[in-house]
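Holo prediction — S-adenosylmethionine.
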Amino acid sequence: MVNPKSAELDGGLYLVSVPIGTARDITLRALDILAGVDVIAAEDTRSMRRLLDIHGVVLGDRPLIAYHDHNGPRVRPKLLQWLREGRSVAYASEAGTPMVADPGFDLARAAREDGTPVTAAPGPVAAIVALTLSGLPTDRFLFAGFLPSNKGRRKSALQDLAMIEATLILYESPKRCAASLADMASVLGEDRPAALCRELTKKFEEVRRGTLAELAAEMAERPVKGEVVLVVAGADGDSSNLSSDDVDSRLKEVIPRMSLRDSVDLVAAESGMKRRQVYQRALDLIGRDAQEDQGGDGDFGAVNGADAEGEKGGDAQ
Ligand code: SAM
């Protein structure tokens, strides 16, 4: 066991991350802070007491105060008063990092507005652990918290997420997992890769990977227990229904028959590819064709050069 250092700390609010399962995932600095602050405020005082016991942190006669969504307005003034007096106060939510789908935001904001120093002792966040294990892209991600429990509102929240080109991370209750995955499959698309990450850092940690449709079907048949994070691949960016080669072939077909502008509009609508991209491909093809024409074997009929010029200065987007 590591002996936490109960050195005297400067006055201020310390936002302390705690484990999301395995008790030893707490950081040494978090233990030092918990050992040294004048006051500990916790979303759940029982689990905080257990954590202190496990790590040999002596509470002594220091106050351990419950602070959560229900008693926040009543307890906050007392904590702020202590902070104004220059005391050091640690705040920890029940699991992971405070304020990540957890209380602490109002307390930190009020402390900052009071001119109190606010700092963090970072540590576990279930969303990040799930992202790390999901196998999905980690370069861009969006944490969307919990989806609404009402089906209509859940679907509309999912519609807002549908076009986001970043991996989506959602917290979900095991009871609602099957329904949420079914709605995700219908709104975000059945084929989107996803991962259901369960009981992270705990004995029964499990990551199920598959498409949204596969996970929804599996969940309906074999519901899960425990805590769950859902991770879903972001929108593709290129929502084209045709391959680039198909788009080129179609452009070659239609450009001889109509203006460049109409050709681009038609192929953009047919393919789902962005108009600007179709326009660029058309210009490339015309350029290529003109060069080939000089060699005598181009495969376009008449191409209206004036039309192409007009497009360049026009509204292609
Ligand atoms: N503040 C926490 C954090 O930093 O991740 C999250 C607390 S939030 C009230 C609880 C939700 O986080 C759970 O419903 C679940 O979606 C997710 N969660 C927390 N611990 C987890 C774990 N060990 N495995 C999977 N999900 C977990």
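READOUT: Residues 12-124 form a domain with the Cobalt-precorrin-4 Transmethylase; domain 1 fold (CATH 3.40.1010.10).
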